[in-house]
Design goal:
Oligomer: single chain
Number of helices: 10
Protein name: Protease HtpX homolog
Number of domains: 1
Largest sheet: 4 strands, mixed
Membrane topology: Multi-pass membrane protein
Number of strands: 4
Enzyme class: hydrolase
InterPro entries: HtpX_protease (IPR050083), Pept_M48_protease_HtpX (IPR022919), Peptidase_M48 (IPR001915)
Radius of gyration: 21 Å
Strand order of the largest sheet: 1-2-4-3
Distance between the termini: 31 Å
Mean pLDDT: 80
Structural class: alpha+beta
Order of helices and strands: HHEHEEEHHHHHHH
Strand content: 5-15%
Pfam family, one: Peptidase_M48
C-alpha cells in the first residue's frame, strides 16, 4: 500500500541504480575470490548468511548498537501520540517505537519494510526539541520507512561488512587449509585478495555515500510537505546540529559508524573534497531546500522558530 508521503521518482531511480551497480560489483567480487581461492562453497555461504542475517535482523542489530530499547505508550505517551498522528496522516503502518538513552540528540529508522520497522529517538533529542520540531524529525524518519530507502541503505551498507567477512574467513581457510603450498604463493593470493577487496570497498563506499546524501534531502522534503511546517524541521536541524557540535568528539566516535542512519551526522565533514565521503548533505543545503518549500507553501521559514 502506498503511503501519503510524497513519492520521489529520482530517489527510486537512484536506489535502483545503486543496488544494480553494487550487485554487479559483488558478483565480480565473489567470482574473483572463487578464482583466487579455488573454493566457491565457503565464499558463497558466508556472503549469503551474512547478508540474510543483516536483512532480517537489521532492526535488532541497530537497536543493540545504539543502546536503544522498545518503549510502550504508558512510558512515553507523547512520543507515541506524535508517531500515531503522523502514521494516520501518512496512511502507513505504525513502526515499533524505541528510545536510546544517549545525550547526543538524534534519531534513526531501520527495518526491512514498513510492516517491520523501528523508529528510535535519543533521550537527548526528546529533552531539546519542542513538539513541532519533534514532529518534523519523526516525519523525516517515517519517510525513510515509507520510501523503503531504509532497507536499501541497510543492505547496501552491509555489503562492505560482507566483503570483510568473506575475505577474512576465505583467506584464513586458504592459509591454514592449503598445506604444502609455498609461502610465496600464499602471499601472492593474499595480496590479490586484499587488492580486490580494497577496490570493491572503495567503489561501494562512494556509491552508498552518494545515495545517502540524496535520501536525506528526499526525507526532508517529504516530511516538510506532509506536516506543512518546513520551518519546524529547519529549526530542529539547526538546533540538533548546533548541540551535537558542543558534545565532546570522543563521545561521538562510536556513533559515527552509524552516521548513514542518523537524522544528522554524529560528526560532520569539513568543506571541500571530504564532502564526497559524507553521509549527509550540508546543513546549508538542507536549510536552503526547506526555505524553498516554505516559500512554495506560503510559510515564513525561520530557522530557530518552531513554526
Amino acid at each position: 500500500m502506498q503511503s501519503r508521503f510524497r513519492s520521489d521518482r529520482r530517489l527510486t531511480v537512484r536506489m535502483g541504480v545503486t543496488l544494480f551497480l553494487l550487485g554487479l560489483l559483488y558478483v565480480a567480487f565473489v567470482a574473483a575470490l572463487i578464482v583466487l581461492l579455488k573454493s566457491w562453497v565457503l565464499v558463497v555461504v558466508i556472503a549469503a548468511v551474512a547478508l540474510g542475517a543483516q536483512y532480517w535482523f537489521s532492526d535488532r542489530i541497530a537497536l543493540f548498537a545504539m543502546h536503544g530499547r522498545v518503549v510502550e505508550r504508558e512510558e512515553y505517551p507523547e512520543l507515541h501520540a506524535v508517531v500515531d498522528r503522523l502514521c494516520a496522516i501518512a496512511d502507513m503502518p505504525k513502526p515499533v517505537v524505541a528510545v536510546s538513552n544517549l545525550d547526543m540528540p538524534n534519531a534513526f529508522a531501520t527495518g526491512r519494510n514498513p510492516d517491520n520497522a523501528v523508529v528510535c529517538v535519543t533521550t537527548g533529542l526528546l529533552r531539546r526539541l519542542e513538539p513541532a520540531e519533534l514532529e518534523g524529525v519523526l516525519a523525516h524518519e517515517l519517510s525513510h520507512v515509507a520510501h523503503k530507502d531504509v532497507a536499501v541503505i541497510t543492505v547496501a551498507s552491509f555489503l562492505g561488512v560482507v566483503a570483510g567477512l568473506v575475505v577474512r574467513f576465505a583467506f584464513y581457510s586458504e592459509l591454514f587449509g592449503g598445506r604444502g603450498r609455498k609461502d610465496q604463493n600464499t602471499l601472492a593470493v593474499f595480496a590479490m585478495v586484499m587488492g580486490v577487496s580494497a577496490a570493491v570497498y572503495a567503489i561501494s563506499f562512494l556509491l552508498i555515500r552518494a545515495l545517502s546524501r540524496y535520501r536525506e534531502l528526499a526525507a526532508d522534503r517529504a516530511a516538510a510537505l506532509l506536516t506543512g511546517r518546513p520551518s519546524a524541521l529547519a529549526s530542529a536541524l539547526t538546533k540538533v546540529t548546533g548541540d551535537i557540535a558542543r558534545i565532546p568528539s570522543e563521545d561521538l566516535r562510536t556513533a559515527q559508524a552509524f552516521n548513514a542512519f542518523y537524522f544528522t551526522p554524529a560528526l560532520g565533514s569539513e568543506p571541500g573534497i571530504s564532502r564526497l565521503f559524507s553521509t549527509h548533505p550540508s546543513l546549508e543545503q538542507r536549510l536552503e531546500q526547506l526555505g524553498r518549500i516554505s516559500a512554495e507553501l506560503g510559510e515564513a521559514a525561520t530557522p530557530g522558530r518552531a513554526g
